Amino acid sequence: MWYWWWGPGHVGWVGAILGGLLWLLIVVLFVALIVRLFRGPRYAYWMQHQHPDDPEQVLQARYARGEIGAEEFQQRLDVLRRAGPPPGK
Fold first, then answer.
1. What is the pTM of this model?
2. Cβ contact 55:86 at 8 Å
3. What distance in Å separates the CA atoms of residue 71 and residue 22, rounded to the nearest whole number?
């Protein structure tokens, strides 16, 4: 029912505006929650621990961690450099 002094319903225009803002707030919080769940700390961890695309970087990382020795590192680096860039680069 319309009242000339309040507008639609019993809460008036102010209530309609506040109700709309409340629903907007609920939707924004829901979207923020979904984004947080999928891009939270696990996302940041995953981004930091991705494997690099460059084979030389992988080889350098393995050498830095001590997984391979200096001689093996140099041999593999020579093989990579002789092979040239990977396809698509």
1. 0.40
2. yes
3. 66
